[in-house]
Amino acid sequence: MNTHRTVSRGLITVLVALVALAVLGWATARSSMSHGALLGMLPFAAVLAIAALGQTLVVMQGGIDLSIAGTISLTVVIITHEAYGNDAKVLPAAALALAAAIAAGLLNGLLVGRLGLNAIVATLGTNALLYAAVLGVSGGTPRQTTDLMARVAGGTTLGVPNAVYFAVVATAVTTVLVKKTVTGRRFEAVGASGLAAWAAGLKVDRFRGGAYVGAGLLYWLAGFLLAGIVNKPTAYEGDSYVLASVAAVVLGGTSLLGGRGSLVASALAGLFLTQLQQYVLALGETYAVQTLVQAAALAIGVALYTINWRRLRSPQRTRALPASA
After folding, report:
1. Distances in Å between the alpha carbon of 98 and those of 4, 94, 104, 317?
2. Does residue 170 contact residue 182 with C-beta atoms inside 8 Å?
3. Which tens digit of pLDDT belongs to each residue from 280-311?
4. DSSP strand E in the chain: where?
5. Measured between alpha carbons, how far is 114 from 238 in angstroms, rounded to an integer?
6. pLDDT of residue 309
7. pTM (global) more than 0.85
8. How far apart are CA 205 and CA 134, in angstroms?
9. Are 241 and 222 in contact (CB under 8 A)?
10. 141/126 Cα distance (integer angstroms)
11. CB neighbour list of residue 186: distance below 8 Å, 6 or more residues apart
12. Which of 3, 57, 148, 187 is the most exposed place for a label (fewest CB within 10 A)?
């Protein structure tokens, strides 16, 4: 039996887009491709790549996670406020933030996977609870990161930002777990067809709920890195990752309807979107334009991988099917 698998269309699309963006940057905005600009961009690209991995797990189950903003923000404020000025407190603060992220994932998993609530409504409610905790911990005021966090998350090794290494390892581990293990293949089967998976005896609610827990772990890692990359992070660092993470997922070829997805493509799409944002900034455009560009990228991804254009092009045929049956 031939076990060879072709490279996903989403991965090819993202790679082509990255090359095209690099060429465009060299031709029209050389400053966006300078060594300093790339070193400044890569840590934030790594954070978005990790956040996109978490969102991909949820989208593969046909859901969406709006609590990503609150989870990342709470992780940032717990680490920066609880460990403020004391490197010895970084590990306990990170552990406390991890517990909060897992709790948020479990709550989302219970609401969506077990109780069957709408993912948007459930995760939006969880996000509100998380931001209540954010304000309770921080009072809305930022604090400077510790020296240890700045070295671990914001430093470089062999000329490469440390955050990139975290992103590569996270992508590799998540991909292996989803693509190369029995549990991972069952996870994909549930996302492709919950009814068929249930008929085959799989615990559909556990897999769907587990996606939110796995996503919470990855959001925690993204927030951990942000707490060291940004010298004085605000209490709302996670806000910009809601739209960006979903855009990265759909650009990477994962349908918003659920099913199989390419985690590597989602991570690379995070790199593409971050560099695209830097390119737009180098052109002198405003933050509003940057947001519109992200929204356009999301729309393109939905058009490529979610909408069934063949069905739209043949309306007479799809309407005739019930009558003929």
Report:
1. 38, 6, 10, 52
2. no
3. 888 887 777 877 887 887 787 777 766 666 66
4. 156-157, 160-161
5. 27
6. 65
7. yes
8. 29
9. yes
10. 22
11. 197, 202, 207
12. 3
**What are the tokens at 135?**
């304000």
Is residue 227 within 8 Å of 90, Cβ to Cβ? no
Q: Would you say how long the chain is, in residues?
A: 325
Measure the CA–CA gap between 230 and 75, rounded to whole angstroms: 13
Q: Please give the single-letter amino acid code of residue 6.
A: T
Neighbouring residues of 65: CB distance < 8 A, sequence distance ≥ 6? 54, 55, 58, 108, 119, 123, 212, 215
Q: Which residue has the tokens 């070295």?
A: 151
Domain spans, the chain: 32-319
Q: Quote the longest CA-to-CA distance of the chain.
A: 73
In whole angstroms, give the CA distance from residue 270 to residue 264.
Answer: 10
Q: How far apart are CA 19 and CA 30, in angstroms?
A: 15
Tracing tokens 């020296």 back to the chain, one arrives at 147
Contact between 164 and 42 under an 8 Å Cβ cutoff? The reply is yes
Q: Is the pLDDT of residue 274 over 50?
A: yes
Three-point CA angle 21, 176, 114, nearest 5°: 100
Counting beta carbons within 10 angstroms of the beta carbon of residue 81, is it exposed (0 to 12), middle (13 to 18) or buried (19 or more)?
middle
